[in-house]
Specification:
This protein has helices at about 45-60, 70-85, 90-110, 115-135, 140-145, 150-160, 165, 175-200, 200-210, 215-240, 260-285, 290-295, 300-330, 335-370, 375-400, 405-420, 425-440, 445-450, 455-460, 485-490, and strands at about 170, 175. By secondary structure, the chain is an all-alpha fold. The chain folds into four domains: about 45-165 and about 220-250, no CATH class; about 175-215; about 260-420, no CATH class; about 425-500, no CATH class. The protein has a two-stranded antiparallel ribbon with strand order 1-2. The protein is flat. It starts with about 45 loop residues before the first helix and ends in a 16-residue tail after the last helix.
Amino acid sequence: MTVTVPGAHMPPPVLGPTRPGYGEPGWTVWPHRVWPLDSLAQAPRRVVVSALVVGVLGTAVWRPTVLSIGYLVAGLMVFAVVYGTGERRPTRGEWLGMGLTLALLSVPALLAAEWLGVLCIMAAWLVGWCTLVGGRTWTSVFMAPFVPLLLPARLTGWVRRAAPALVPHAVGGVKLARFGAVIAITVTLVLVFGGLLTAADPAFAHLVDNVVPALDLDGLVGRVLVFALAAALVLGGGYVMRFAPRLDAVAPAPMRSVPRWEWAVPLGVLDALFVAFVAVQATVLFGGHRHVVETEGLTYAEYARQGFWQLLWVSALTLLVISVVIRVAARVTAADRRALRVLVGTTCATSVVVVISAIHRMWLYQEAYGFSVQRLVVITIELWLGAVFVLIALAGVGMTARWLPRAVLVSGAVALLGLAAINPERLIAERNIDRYAQTGQLDASYLLSLSSDAEPALARLPEPMPQCADYRADAPDAWYEFNLSRWRASGADPATATCPQYVE
């Protein structure tokens, strides 16, 4: 018989198992709706063994400090193991993500420009982890590259629980701990007495030097780190394949919509300002050299350099304005949706003209004062911003943007691959040499500081200038550091006797 005391607080009934408390198995700082922790899950044998194999192979072919084919080989091995040992087949989106990631990792194998290789490696990291983690929101795109930083604690338990099945407690009736102790004692004795004997007898020391390879401590530490990194990438990818965080669940909730006039008025005024700018640009945008020459007191530097940076800021800030409007604008009635399409579509269309104007100005500036890496990179950024405006306009047509974050990410990767496809440093060298042939002006020190990607263009310069390129002093690459551009370039030493006149 149950007796109820008046005024006593009765706890609510518990339905189902309670969540683990702090310190208990399965406890995690992440909400269970985002990333639950299975305290009983263990890494499959095939994943752990494959991770060890990839780690060993990685030490042979991959040097993270050198732009080489090692990055592509490492990426291929990681994806092959992660999806080859997975419990499902890759989706079409994952195939696309893997293709883009491997394409980005192939750039360090083909081109020698360090700045471009680093950008492609960073982009490959972003695209690769977004592919593994999944998700469709901006929150997922921004958080996915940081998921590997949160994996070590989970991987430790996941792999440790698989250890009993991988490492037997006894080998041939001998306990594994005693077996390891015997090996450690044997190695210690060999090192101690071997060192004393080699110091006592030069002939014996010569024999040992011929038999035992030299120990490169720095190289050994580097290979151990590469082994750990390659194995961790495989284990991390395998874990995320099976227990991916649902990052879309932590995306901000939709904001409370505001009345139409509160966002339509400022956006309409901004559109009117952009339309006026476009109308002015219609008369000068493609005027080019004639417009610059006929305008009193206007030089290429004033027309291109100053105007370009302002227009670049306009493009970036316009994206911020559009994102805020899309967050707060109501879409309840047909009039709301029509107003949003018209005003945001006008903003996107005029912004594309602003992007074209900025690119045109910078191109004129480069033709007048020479091409450089920085100028070509910012043009690529502007092209990508123009593509983003087009994608936003397309999303507005169907009033759905679930695909937009991934599309923007893919467009950025494609823009970077497009920049790599034109071989930017070779293009820069060719255009500057063309300008040199027309004007006799050349920044030789900058041109000779480019990587071996510029080798075909430098061959057009008068001797001995092509022999003074900085990359000619580099030592030949080992087989595992193969890079197509460095392999094609000559490895001859620079002509130091005549080169100082070309170097500032």
